[in-house]
Amino acid sequence: MQASALLLTKLHRPPVTGDRVDRSRLIEQLNRGLQQGPLTLVSAAAGFGKTTLVSSWIESVTTGRGGVTPPLPAAWLSLDENDGNLVVFLRYFVAAIRTVFPESCAETFALLQAPQPASPALLLVAFSNELERLPARCVLALDDYHAIRGEAVHDFLSELLHHWPQRLHLVLISRSNPPLPLANLRARGQVAEIRTRDLRFTPEEAAAFLGKVLAAPLSPSAVAWLDQRLEGWIAGLRLVTLSLCAGADAETELAGLSGSNVEIADYLVDEVMSSQTPAILRFLLATAVLDRFCAALCECVLGSAAGSVAGSDGLPCDVQACIQWLERNNLFVIPLDNDRQWYRYHHLFQELLKRRLLAEVGPEQVTELHRRAAAWFAGQGLIDEALHHALAADDLDLAARLMEAGLCDVLNREDRPTLDRWLRLLPEDFIRRRPWLLMMQALTFQFSWQLPAVWKLLGQIEALLAERPLQRDEGAEHALRSGEHALRSSEAAPRSGVAAPHSGAQPDLQALRGMIAALRGQEAFSKSQAARAIACCEEALALLPEGWAYGRGGALLYWAMSMRASGRDAVAQRRLTDEYESLSWKTDAYAVRLLYAVCFNFLETGRLEEARQMAQVMLEQAPPDRLLIRQGFAHYFLGVVHYSWNELDAARPHFEWLVDKRYAVHAQAARNGLIGLARVHLAKAEISAGWPIMEFLSQLDVERLGQEGDDARSLRAQLAYLQGDTEAAFRWADAYATPAPDRLLTWPQDPHMAKAQILLARGTDADVQSALDILDALHEIAQRTCSVRFRIEILALRALALEMQGKAVDAVAALRPAVELARPGGIIRAFVDLGPPMQTMLLALAQQGLAEQGLAAETVRRILAAFPEPQKKIATGDAGSRIHSANARLVEPLTGREREVLALLRERLSNKEIAHMLCLSPMTVKRHTVNLYGKLGVNRRWDAVIKAEALEILPPR
After folding, report:
1. Is the CB of residue 846 less than 8 Å from the CB of residue 837?
2. Residue 6 predicted with pLDDT over 80
3. Is residue 91 a contact partner of residue 112, using CB atoms and an 8 Å limit?
4. Whole-number Å distance between alpha carbons of 449 and 143
5. Helix, strand or coil for residue 138?
6. For the CA atoms of 236, 240, 241, 245, what is the dihedral angle to 10 degrees?
7. How many helices (H) and strands (E) are present in the chain, helices listed first?
8. How many CB atoms lie within 10 A of CB 487?
9. What is the pLDDT of residues 920-935, one digit of tens each?
């Protein structure tokens, strides 16, 4: 049986069973509630027929037989105490809506599967909007809402009720008043309520019910006496009928009823139980611990052999026969699916059975029953249900072993929310004592890209393993062995609707060490320790079993990227390709991780067309609503490729996709998407449009880390500079004192590169030298780790710094290899982003005839053509050659930046306006002006312009 089979029991409306009594007055009341507002509340104590009433009403609503026209589609969700977590609750809520509208709530569904938890506010906005866009109006009933514990779900629904979507009518079925804004809803006339007084059987309804059920009718005085005692309590009446059916003298039996409803119920249940056969009695008591049950589960809990259970009297009974007998005799058992494979007891009846079970067998036997149930659910792969019973048994060790057994499957589907939820079930001090639980904690941090926390936890795990070897939990294994024995028995006699059991295999020490090695490989890669990363990843691949696709995929990913960083890209690509081609299933997380590694390596080595092709395959292989982490990286790669080619309109939708899905994709892909979109805006001179993106990035960082990351702060400084707030930019650059780390350059916004750019913009001699020091350190890292993409950016920026120092020859020597490296991949934007100074240098490079020395003139022309107007006023062609020759004849030629300032001086612009156009500070413009005055032998602006024109350094006006 798969998890979806049990999910169906939560989403399936219980059929209306038993002898019906005409309750048209309540049906009409529910119908009026549809028109009254967004919410109907049906609230009463246990046993007043709440579920039966709403189930009957929904049957009439969906068929159009109850006065509601046209018929409305309806969904049902049965809640329990495990659904108090907001993510779990909303997952079931969305699943219920999708039983009516299968394609609905896609964005909310993606957010609920996200590797990083979305804030309740974001979930509220997304969910509310999607409910408003439902194809038609519908009804959703939430049964047993009183089971919800904690405030998160109540707070969420309270906020939603303030602006409830008109397409959805909500029916809450609860034993008590839910903590929702009922007073406000009543004041606005937006809630319909059915309470205990409405649900009570009237004397006439009680008489009609008893007349249908009892073989011999009661006297009017007996019916009146019952009505006085039970006050229309439906469950009590049903228990009375069961008790009277077992007895001989109905009138005499009734005389024993006294006390409160609960006391009466206890008495009546005792009467009912005393009349059952030993086998049925054992069945009822043993299965009372089960919130839902099927035949195979009951056999496991009862410790059966070959489908039967024998008691101390040696009398066997068939479990399936017991269930059928209970249903046939209407003994408070409710079918939960149309195939009648799954059932539950009426809640009141179950509570009374559990109290009797505890009194008769004691807590130890109740614990054993829970452990057996946990083992069966674990064997079916239903870890959440297994955990419920393990925790009901107060067995933390068993709960931990169940989590460990389910970890591989959770990782393979990249389900970070489930890991979070599991860990919240256990005390922190207990988690610290178990290596596998610490590993689960580390993996939740890895999903949200909080890598320092991962490395810290790895140290704790290794310390635990050094202190003592990983011990097996004998108690947990005993329970699991009990479950396996029962499962083997059920396999011998398979039943319809029960799938083959899940293996439930416990992870061992070897797998744990494999996961440690895989994460250590990631750590080494992030610290530019390629050789160590390769060794760790190879160790992980040797240790991890084949089924651990997530761990093996991560190990192979960082192995391949480390091989590329150590200059062995061809070997890595060959292994990745061979591995991918050998897979029979190419759409799971493991396969897409291989493509990720291939694509990343192509991007870093400047092979952009190959990177584009692989990223496109990643998108095509990932299903639309699954593997969003991999889809996110595919969009990131495509955005970077198109941006690098200066195809801004093609890059924008890929980055926008990441911004829209920023909570559903990998944290780093989301951040890079935000940075990429901000850069597109800057490239299009849409500076003001970059600020909202910056705020999204800041919010994402604060939610994840509690503060902005260094790269986010550097982007903020660059935006401030471009908007004219140079002081804010300079303050950040002066305050950012972190030395360039010895690590791989991986992501697009490097704070050290940003600092170098801002220092060059300020342009003092000390700033230029500091920028060069930073760039020299970064270039050594990029060269050592074979990052062609970053070498291009660093060399181009370094060329500008050298030009500013007047080292024209060295500047050209730095720029030439940058252009040569950019040529195969067609990289353009790395140069255009550096603005007019780079345009001037590239023009000079082209005029020197360097194409004859191996540099493609077409590459330079293509880059120059990408610079926006009005920067193209710089001369080209023959006129450009004459200008270059004239400048060279000066005793000290003007630098490219000085010629840019000179050209703008002729436009009658102020120093501040020139500074804004060239992305410089006014002080830097003034310094360049003084320098070019000295080289031209003049003292005033217009004299400099006239002399430059006379010398043909400036083209004629």
Report:
1. no
2. no
3. yes
4. 38
5. strand
6. 160
7. 50, 9
8. 22
9. 677 778 888 888 888 8
The two three-digit tokens of residue 44, written as one number: 């009463």
**Residue located via tokens 């043993």:** 286
Contact 467, 364 (CB under 8 A): no
Alpha-carbon distance of 503 to 516, in angstroms, equals: 24
CA distance 62 to 169: 13
- Cβ 338 vs Cβ 351: under 8 Å: no
Q: What's CA 904's distance to the chain center, in Å? A: 52
Structurally, at CATH architecture level, domain 508-609 sits in Alpha Horseshoe (1.25)
Determine the Cα angle at 746 with ends 711 and 118, to 5°: 60
CB 957 within 8 A of CB 949: yes
- Do 165 and 135 form a contact (C-beta atoms < 8 A)? no
Give CA–CA dist 657/640, Å, rounded. Answer: 13
Any idea which residue has 């393993």 for tokens? 465
**Whether residue 859 has pLDDT greater than 90:** no
Would you place residue 909 in the very low, low, confident or very high pLDDT band (cuts 50, 70, 90)? Answer: confident
Retrieve residue 807's tokens: 């080292």
Peptide bond into 70 cis (omega under 30): yes
Q: Is the pLDDT of residue 499 over 80?
A: no
Q: Distance (Å, rounded) from C-alpha 953 to C-alpha 345?
A: 95
Q: Which helix (H) or strand (E) holds 172?
A: strand 168-174
Residue 170 identity:
L
Q: How far is CA 274 from CA 266, 281, 318, 581, 615, in A?
A: 12, 8, 20, 67, 69
Please give the distance of CA 16 from its chain centroid, rounded to a whole number: 38
CATH architecture of 627-737: Alpha Horseshoe (1.25)
Matching CATH number, 875-957, of 3.40.50.2300, 3.30.10.20, 3.30.1330.200, 1.10.10.10: 1.10.10.10
Torsion, Cα 145 148 151 153, to 10 degrees, reads: -60
* Statement: residue 832 has pLDDT above 90: yes
| Residue pointed to by tokens 């994402």 | 700
Compute the mean pLDDT over every residue in the chain, rounded to the nearest whole number.
82
Two structure tokens written together for 870 = 């009005």
Omega before 14 within 30 of 0, i.e. cis: no
How long a stretch of residues is the chain? 957
CATH superfamily of 22-200: P-loop containing nucleotide triphosphate hydrolases (3.40.50.300)
| CB under 8 A, 24+ apart: contacts of 933-936 | 935/890, 935/891, 935/892, 935/893, 935/894, 935/898, 936/890
Q: For residues 714 and 722, what is the distance between their CA atoms, to the nearest angstrom?
A: 13
Structure tokens at 450: 């909080």
Given a cut of 50, whether residue 877 has pLDDT beyond it is no
Say if residue 345's pLDDT is above 90. no
- Give the 3-state secondary structure of residue 264: helix
Q: How confident is the model at residue 307 (pLDDT cuts 50, 70, 90)?
A: very low
For residue 395, give every residue at least 6 positions away whose Cβ sits within 8 Å of its Cβ, in sequence order, or none: 367, 370, 371, 374, 475, 476, 479
**Residue 18 C-alpha from the chain's centroid:** 44
CA distance 561 to 554: 11
Specify the 3-state DSSP secondary structure of 344. strand
Q: 848: pLDDT confidence band, cut at 50, 70 and 90?
A: low
- Residue 916 CB neighbours (<10 A): 18
Rg over alpha carbons for the chain, rounded to the nearest Å, is 37
Residue 623 confidence (pLDDT) above 80: no
816-827 pLDDT tens trace: 899 999 999 999
pLDDT tens-place string over residues 213-262: 776 677 777 777 777 777 777 777 777 777 665 444 556 666 656 555 66
Report yes or no: 193 and 44 within 8 Å, Cβ to Cβ: no
